[in-house]
Every structure is written in C-alpha cells, then in structure tokens.
Write a structure and sequence with these properties.
The complex is a heterodimer. By secondary structure, chain A is an alpha+beta fold. Chain A has helices spanning 18-30, 34-54, 83-86, 96-100, 108-115; strands spanning 2-9, 57-64, 68-76, 118-124, 128-136. Chain B has helices spanning 3-14, 22-28, 53-58, 74-83, 98-107, 118-127; strands at residues 32-35, 46-49, 65-69, 87-90, 111-113, 131-132. Chain B has a six-stranded mixed β-sheet. Classes of the chains: A alpha+beta, B alpha/beta.
C-alpha cells in the first residue's frame, strides 16, 4: 500500500527526529486514527534516537498494509550485548550528549515495546541491531 | 488581588467553571512570551513537567497539554510535534536558540519562558486547577 524508507545518521542531534515527524505526517494524510499515529510516532522517534545515539548509521522502513503498519529499524552499530538488560527501564549505555538531549535514561526500548502491538529485537555484537515492530490499524 | 479573591479564582477553575487559557498561565508564572502571540487564547487543561523527553513520550499525553521543562534544544520541539503538545514553558529564564524558535513557529507551538524554577512553576499551575499527565 505504502512504503517509506529513511536513512538515519549517527550523532546528528539536530536532524534526529525528522524521519519520525515525516512518518507521522504521512500517516495523518492517509487518515490513520490519532491514537495509533501517536503510538507509531513515539516508537519510531525513540528508535530513531537510538540510532543517532548508539549506532553508526541506520535505516527505518515503514510498510503500510491494509490492516497493519510494519516498521523495521535496522542499524549498523556496536549491537547490544545483553538484550534483557537493555529492555529494562533505567538501564542505559548512552553518552552524556544523549542525556543532554533529554534521552539516554534507559527508556528507549521499553517505550518502543510499550507502544507497539508486536515487538521483535535481534542484535549481533559488532554488527548491529534490528527492530521489527507491528501496529494493528 | 487579595488572597481570598485568589482562592475564589482557583476554586472556580477547579470546578471547571472557567477555562484556563495561555494568557492566564503567563500571568500566573510571571512569564514572557517568546513566540506565538496568536495563540494566547489557547485553552490548556493538562500540565506535563519533565526534562527527560523519554518521560514525555512514555506519558499518555492528552489534548491541550502544556510542557514545563528546562531543556531548550531541538529535541524538545521534536517531542512536542510527536505527542501534539499545545505549548511549552522554559523555566529558570532559559531561552532556546533562534533555530529552535523557528521550529516552534513552523509547528505552531507557542513558547514561554519564566524565571521561576520547575518546582515553583508547576506548583502555581497546579493551584490554577490544572491536572497532571499520567
């Protein structure tokens, strides 16, 4: 139905969030329900910040089907050593700069997990991390 | 205004007789409008106080929510856009860079600043009868 792809750069704290804002706008134009747009935007924004904070580069892909929105967030980066720890609220390995931006308090992945209807995470240390999210429309 | 009159105003607002608009809020916190003069009559119902944007994103933000924060960078505006915040107050006299103010204008989100601290600002807004986000 609709496919959008965004490339995210590491460490660009000003541009961070642009992709999420654009995804939100296109979902609004299509006429998706406000509360679903909110959950998708929050999840994508946290995922986008994760790339900016932790990875070297990444790609966010949105696939809109008739009854669901699928989002894949794939980054090239250091990967996550302990996914169970990363899923806990309050656990973070983020930099001081990330904290100055209002992030890096160990809430990214938990917030994404809470917002999405389905959440899968795969990470290879030294290679990168992939998130697969689904939202029922 | 005498304390008695002030209490009356507050209780009126608590009982939903009177709505709180941005203009009232600026007066109450002795604030200055940075941008968004055309939005002074916007109604505000909910206050969110946070410096951690992940906390704002974790909240279930209702319509007509105003954010009180001491963060002044671009990510505050991105967060405001994502969760549809109505207005933002920067505490402790902080003023964002022009680029951030431009973002706010594009998003039609009025910006206010106050010399009061986060605690004092939120305390005053609570007294106005405004609820918190959860």
């Amino acid at each position: 139905m609709l496919r959008q792809e965004f490339t995210i750069k590491s460490n660009d704290f000003f541009a961070a969030g642009e992709a999420s804002a654009r995804i939100k706008k296109s979902l609004q134009q299509i006429g998706i329900a406000t509360d679903i747009i909110r959950r998708i935007s929050v999840a994508v924004y946290e995922a986008e910040m994760n790339i900016v904070i932790h990875a070297y580069s990444g790609v966010i892909t949105l696939d809109l089907e008739s009854n669901k929105a699928k989002i894949v967030v794939k980054d090239k980066g250091p990967g996550i050593e302990d996914i169970d720890m990363a899923m806990k609220e309050g656990f973070s390995t983020a930099s001081e700069e990330a904290r100055r931006q209002g992030f890096g308090a160990g809430m990214g992945l938990p917030n994404i997990n809470r917002a999405a209807d389905s959440f899968e995470i795969e990470s290879i240390v030294g290679k990168g991390t992939t998130l697969k999210l689904e939202f029922v429309l | 205004m005498s304390p008695k009159n002030e209490m009356y105003t507050i209780s009126k607002k608590l009982y939903g007789v009177e709505k709180v608009i941005l203009r009232d809020i600026i007066e109450a916190i002795d604030g200055k409008l940075i941008s968004g003069e055309e939005f002074l009559d916007k109604e505000i119902e909910v206050i969110c106080g946070a410096d951690l944007m992940s906390d704002v994103l974790a909240c279930h933000i209702k319509p007509k929510t105003l954010l009180v924060t001491s963060l002044i960078n671009a990510q505050v505006m991105r967060t405001a856009d994502i969760v549809d915040l109505e207005a933002i107050i920067f505490v402790r006299g902080k003023k964002p860079a022009d680029l951030v103010i431009e973002m706010a204008k594009d998003l039609e989100i009025p910006l206010i600043r106050t010399d009061y601290t986060m605690y004092k600002s939120c305390g005053i807004l609570y007294q106005l009868g405004l609820q918190g986000c959860n």
